[in-house]
Amino acid sequence: SQELEQSPQSLIVQEGKNLTINCTSSKTLYGLYWYKQKYGEGLIFLMMLQKGGEEKSHEKITAKLDEKKQQSSLHITASQPSHAGIYLCGAGSSYNTDKLIFGTGTRLQVFP
Amino acid sequence: DTAVSQTPKYLVTQMGNDKSIKCEQNLGHDTMYWYKQDSKKFLKIMFSYNNKELIINETVPNRFSPKSPDKAHLNLHINSLELGDSAVYFCASSQDGGTANYGYTFGSGTRLTVV
Asked: Is the Cβ pair A99, B48 closer than 8 Å?
């Protein structure tokens, strides 16, 4: 079965610093999603990547999917306390599956 | 208006009890899901329903029984609750067509604590 590994598991950064979270699979990813979760809340959709080499940005967050579609990175520029939370990557194991598999999660803390 | 709503948000109950969690989506999506997030924040699929029909059942104990009265609702009933059932349960929905094209919309979660 496909597994998604995220690294690092936990990240503590000072406000204003840049950071990168990685999501890696041993198999091709179909529809790579990044979600953010704050404590006690649901998952908030950030971005979706489909094509190899694709890159998307929203405000200070940029997500990339590599050419082989087996690895994605999420980069946050000039981090702020509002970026704190758990970041989860999710992907389908095949093109037309309804089942989204999630990574192990990365807990981000941003201190002033 | 909340797109995917779950009730209750918090649930504390004793071992052995039976409880239900309700989920409703007003997005017109065809597929609904239940995910379980354990204490390590690992999110794992439990069930999915497409137009009231069970599609995915991921090796979940028989004590867990999903029920979908219509495509906008997917409830989760749990019998004989055990300590290990304590987790956050998320409901989600997606448009028919697979996750390669459409993402999920998640509810805010139900934190279940079994004591």
From this structure: yes
User: How many contiguous H segments (helices) and E segments (strands) does chain A have?
Assistant: 0, 11
**What type of residue sits at position B14?**
Q
Cβ B57 vs Cβ B44: under 8 Å: no
Question: Residue A66 corresponds to which tokens in the numbers above?
Answer: 């590599």
Q: Tell me how far apart the alpha carbons of residues A30 and A22 are, in angstroms, rounded to a whole number.
A: 16
Tokens of residue A27, six digits? 């198999």
Interface A-B: count of C-beta contacts within 8 A: 86
**What are the angstrom distances between the C-alpha of A52 and each of A1, A28, A60, A74, B100?**
22, 10, 22, 15, 13
Who has greater pLDDT, A93 or A38? A38
The mean per-residue pLDDT over the stretch A34-54 comes to 86
Spatial separation of the C-alpha atoms in residues A79 and A61, rounded to whole Å:
9
- Nearest residue in B to A49, CA atom: B100
CA distance B74 to B97: 19
Beta strands in A38-84 (DSSP E): 43-49, 55-58, 61-65, 71-76
